[in-house]
Amino acid sequence: MNISGKWLVILASAVIIAGSGGVIAGVSIGEEGQEQNAASQPDRDNGEMSSEEGWEKVHQAHDLIVEQYIDDVDESSLYEGAIEGMLDELDDPYSVYMDQETAGQFEESLDSEFEGIGAEVNMVNENVTIVSPIQGSPAEEAGLMPDDQILEIDGNSTEGQSLNEAVMDIRGEQGTSVALTIDRPSASDPFEVEVERDAIPMESVESRTIDREGETIGLLEIISFSTDTAQEFEDELNALESEGIDGLLIDVRDNPGGYLNSVQDIGSLLLPEGETIVQIEQPDGEVMATPSTLEEEKDYPMAVLINQGSASASEILAAALNEAGGHALIGETTFGKGTVQQGYQFDDGSEMNLSMSRWLTSDGNTIHEDGVEPTIEESQPDYFYTAALAVDETLTFDDNNDQVSNAQYILEGLGFDPGRTDGYFDEQTEEAVADFQQQAEDLEENGEIDEETAQHLHSAIVDEIREDENDQQLDTAIDHLISEVS
What we know:
Layout: E1 2-8, H1 51-68, H2 75-89, E2 96-98, H3 100-109, E3 113-116, E4 119-124, E5 127-133, H4 138-141, E6 149-153, E7 156-157, H5 163-170, E8 177-183, E9 191-196, E10 198-201, E11 205-212, E12 215-222, H6 229-243, E13 247-251, H7 260-267, E14 276-281, E15 287-291, E16 302-306, H8 313-323, E17 328-331, E18 339-345, E19 351-360, E20 376-377, H9 402-413, H10 427-440, H11 451-465, H12 472-485
Parallel strand pairs: 12-13, 13-16, 16-17, 17-20
Antiparallel strand pairs: 1-18, 2-19, 3-10, 4-5, 6-7, 6-8, 8-9, 11-12, 14-15, 14-19, 18-19
Helix pairs in contact: 6-7, 7-8, 9-11
GO molecular function: serine-type endopeptidase activity
Region (Disordered): 34-55
EC number: 3.4.21.102
């Protein structure tokens, strides 16, 4: 087995990746009907085994299964199952085993491009849960959101599936579709979303400038912390500084994380020399701090945009810029992942990611399961959080359900006043739908929401969400930086 040398603070997942426990009465195992012990009993009151006794028990169990199980046994599956079983006992969703195919897909998800729906998923309370959709991905287009729980994949329940098994079912070739049954905390009933898989480009850094009130604010959007992200960040930052900027806004919203060294390198491009970027706490309690090596301090104010889809490496950067740099964090409390995984690659190409340490913020705080809190809290408009419309039957006057409520929020966000958002389809909602249909031109103007109207509503609200003028968090951050410049 080789140590891959890759330290991950990404969610340990891929992207878009009844028997009886007792003795059966009347049956004995062994030669000539004599019952045999599967392993020697430890001579201890507390029942704990030595390592030697434990391995002896495992070997005996293996031999019994291979030699006496009623059907043929695939021994390689037994070995893989043993590894998975040991990791399951850790009760750690980030310590995972991946077979050859899944390990390849995991590495691919940190590469420049892969095929799937473009969503980071994780196990949360034994449920396959979306951490964040990648910006511009089919998952985002379909309206999937952080904290959405995936109950079914193409009609098959995810209950009892491992994270890797669920990911394998979700991913697939470009142009094919997958139907996901979603349970959203804000919705009273599950709903189905069909997502068409596509090639997901993984450009990890995007940049642009925003001019307001005579000031130029540079915006650097980090989509993930992959292999080349730090170099991309440095190149884009240098380009912005060459243009001349009065402030810098770093956006790590819906960024699920990535490589630890990537965020450490970026920290050294922003924080003054000697300031702590992150601290790593080893199992023995030893803490190692990573200081910034930046020699020339930046002469412009900075701020960071965060939300509930900002995880791991995103949280490291946000916390560092706040605690060590004194810069504002604008948005919502982040995901809350404070452990670091190291990847171990086996000779056959399979891989195990194991939680090896905890990371602490610049000031030595842990954010695991709590997240990083914004210094300036700002939410988005209600329609940003609306579930995708899933219209199995046409929505009409006098209907009363969650889908009507979703449509009302969307109509409201598009400027068509439904008069209410409680899910009751009244006359004013009917009029708002008809007005939308009239403006769309290619829809029948009947005030009803069929599948075609629902698709038009969804496309229109996605376009609206992407407009800077509707991004309240971005607007608040720009205003803050301008006030800092002044």
